[in-house]
Specification:
Layout: E1 10-14, E2 18-23, E3 36-41, H1 43-53, E4 57-65, H2 68-79, E5 82-90, E6 97-102, E7 108-113, H3 129-133, E8 135-140, H4 150-163, E9 167-170, H5 182-191, E10 198-202, H6 203-210, H7 217-221, E11 230-234, E12 240-243, E13 248-251, H8 264-276, H9 286-303, H10 316-325
Parallel strand pairs: 1-4, 1-8, 2-6, 4-5, 8-9, 9-10, 10-11
Antiparallel strand pairs: 2-3, 6-7, 11-12, 12-13
Amino acid sequence: MATSDGEKSLIVSFGEMLIDFVPTVSGVSLSEAPGFIKAPGGAPANVAIAVARLGGRAAFVGKLGDDEFGHMLAGILKQNGVSAEGINFDTGARTALAFVTLRSDGEREFMFYRNPSADMLLRPDELNLDLIRSAKVFHYGSISLIVEPCRSAHLKAMEVAKEAGALLSYDPNLRLPLWPSKEEAKKQILSIWDKAEVIKVSDEELMFLTGSDNVDDETALSLWHDNLKLLLVTLGEKGCNYYTKSFRGSVDPFHVDAVDTTGAGDSYVGALLCNIVDDRSVLEDEARLREVLRFANACGAITTTKKGAIPALPTVSEVETLLNAK
């Protein structure tokens, strides 16, 4: 559903973009890995590319190093149809790197090189405010809250987007090794909780934020706030649960052979945002929302069937093939 001039509404994704170094062999530790493949990543950037690959209109706002890796990442965004108007380059700091261990079950462990990396140094005065004001959906994570000046840039961008009428979408995307402590992570992730209208957490994040061992409705609803329109809890291979003011439920998963779970949550979020950006009434219509979440589950599932996040993000035709096969 496009806007009147035929141009789709804009989804702006804010935060980090980095390079994951993924072992050429699964199921070994970093020290045992014989080699690594460069894989562009960073959850907010993955979401932007997921949106564009599904035919939506996306822009990324963040800071990269003025180095070969930084320019490579900006190029990857552009090649994938994502606007790079919101990118700044830092001449004094490098683009962030992460070494990722792929366990034999496809889950991941991370070792980060950010001391500091360019994404942490984005300042409020460097933000492309015109771009942010033109967003119909403004999406972000929590890694950009860890240190100044990026934290202030994040808060400013959120405020400007909200004032301009954007729907605020939040996926905390917990990466504990990046935070000074568990307590600080929880405190800062929750510090902006009541601003977002759409929030997606994984089952692990739900347990971390609530201190509960359960992922039941009662635990999820303890995170509810009055500004929220939709709370989503993704359950990996078990599908997802959804909560709104008026209804709640769960949507079944798609069973696939998972190779690498990297980017599955970002693919899910991109699919959701694509389907609500032009029609927020979907959030109040359970039948339509369930269809959207089924589509999002399919996107997430497909993303786990290939190594790396960005190469694995699906097109609409790939999603339709999976939807029609069931």
